[in-house]
Amino acid sequence: MIENSTPRSTRFVALDVHKATIVVAVAEDGDQQPESWDKIPNDPSAVRKMVKKLGQDGHQLKAVYEAGPTGYGLQRQLADLGVECIVAVPTLIPRAHGRVKTDKRDAILLARLLRRGDLVPVWVPDPTIEALRSLARARYDAKENHQRERQRLNKFLLHWGVRPPAGVRAWTNRHYRWLKEVQLSEPAAQVAFEDYRAFEQLAQERVRRLEQELRTWAEQHPRLALIVAALQILRGIGFLSAATIAVEVGDFRRFAAATSFMHFIGITPSEHSSGESQQRGGITHAGNRYLRHVMVQSAHHSRHQPGVSRELQKRMEDMPKDMIEIALKAQQRLHYRYRSLSRRIGQPKAIVAVARELAGFVWAMGQHMEEVLAA
Predict the structure, then answer these.
(1) How far apart are the C-alpha atoms of 200 and 178, rounded to whole Å?
(2) Every domain of the chain and the residues it spans
């Protein structure tokens, strides 16, 4: 006797994830209206129970939730439970127009879009890369905080009419020695000054500590260390920039073309076209702000004549010849672009345009390294 085997139907599960709760909506395989299923606690045991209930009767589950502050822990748990789960890009989710917005409506919309295949997933890094990414972002935040502490100290001194001696550049060793000698006429103001100075020093020490930790942990990751070393042969990209690029990208193979990488950074021009009209504006900023910052800062080096410094020459040692050729070609191309554009559109816009082209060379270098590592 031959038993009839029916194919497993797919059940599309949308999760509106919050700190303490998860609102669940379900869309069955077909054209039925998605429905709100339940509201469960945001903890692993409740998620396991949900998967068990929804997977009854042989249903194959496919889940989705929006990328956000809750991270990728839920995605990894669902994957371990045998559930295919994507994390959707929030900015690319089509939104229904209207004034009523609830968690249930959001979950139902996600379920419908998941069934239709209209969601764009983010790339989910492995826990090690995610941890290094968190370390790099902590260093970035510490750097921003350090700049704010310096600004506060500068404003305080300006308010009291205290200026460094002529020829003393800000935040050099001579400047720090001068700060130690500053004495204000009012004791209470001196207390405030010492507090501002102490916090600036603490912020500086935090930056140094995180930079050292990032260097230590990045060197312990063999694949990441090779990519970081390769990116540093591009002029203007030192260790911190290369490490930031490597951990934010994760895998260069997920970008099929250089333009895709540029879009990911958010460094491409915005456009508004309708009919015969075509208008282009500033860059979209709809991308990874950490990579965008690195590219723009590195692009400033293209203002100078192409050349290989002693430090850059050392970085190029033991690097493949074709990769060195990419790095030298990048210097020539980017400097030429900067000079030609800066005359026409001014330095700020020229730097951004050069940063966009630098991203193309970074992509090419990353693709080459991925091929080498895969061989």
Answers:
(1) 15
(2) 10-116, 137-217, 222-374
User: Which DSSP letter does residue 101 get?
Assistant: -
d(CA 195, CA 180): 12
User: Amino acid identity of 245?
Assistant: I
How far is the C-alpha of 278 from the C-alpha of 100, rounded, in Å?
A: 35
pLDDT digits (tens, 9 = 90+) for 147-187: 999 999 999 999 999 999 999 999 999 999 999 999 999 99
Whether 81 contacts 63, CB under 8 Å = no
CB-CB contact of 319 with 328 (8 Å): no
Q: In what order do the strands lie in the sheet with 21-28?
A: 35-41, 21-28, 10-17, 60-66, 84-88
Six-digit token string for 6: 């029916």
In angstroms, the CA 190 to CA 188 distance is: 5
**Residue whose entry in the numeric block shows the structure tokens 């895969």:** 374
In whole angstroms, give the CA distance from residue 359 to residue 293.
Answer: 12
Q: What is the CATH number of domain 10-116?
A: 3.30.420.140
Number of H-type helices and E-type strands within the chain: 13, 7
Rg (CA), the chain: 26
Query: How does pLDDT run across 72-119, given as a tens digit for each residue?
Result: 999 999 999 999 999 999 988 887 776 678 999 999 999 999 999 999
Q: What are phi and psi of 233, to 5 degrees?
A: -85, -5
